[in-house]
Design goal:
By secondary structure, the protein is of the alpha+beta class. It is built from two helices and four strands; from the N terminus they run βαββαβ. The chain is 23% helix and 22% strand. It binds iron/sulfur cluster (SF4).
């Protein structure tokens, strides 16, 4: 599973960072960075972050479910 960010759609509101801060991080210029790709331990939170993004700017690749 791989997370992809649509930077055009992201409005830097920090919802994803609040749910999975080990993966998503906003910098001081409101650019969203992926710190890592989700491992088994963060998969559930990353799925929740993807569902919770109000701008639908996050998607998952290689997801067979
Ligand atoms: S929740 Fe969505 S809009 Fe908000 S910072 Fe994350 S990717 Fe951007």
């Amino acid at each position: 599973m791989r997370v992809v960010v649509d930077h055009q759609a992201c409005e830097a509101n920090g919802v994803c960072e609040g749910i999975a801060p080990e993966i998503f991080q906003l910098d001081e210029d409101d650019n969203l960075h992926l710190l890592d790709q989700p491992g088994a331990d963060s998969e559930e939170r990353v799925r929740r972050a993807v569902r919770s993004c109000p701008k639908v700017a996050l998607s998952l690749e290689g997801d067979r479910e």
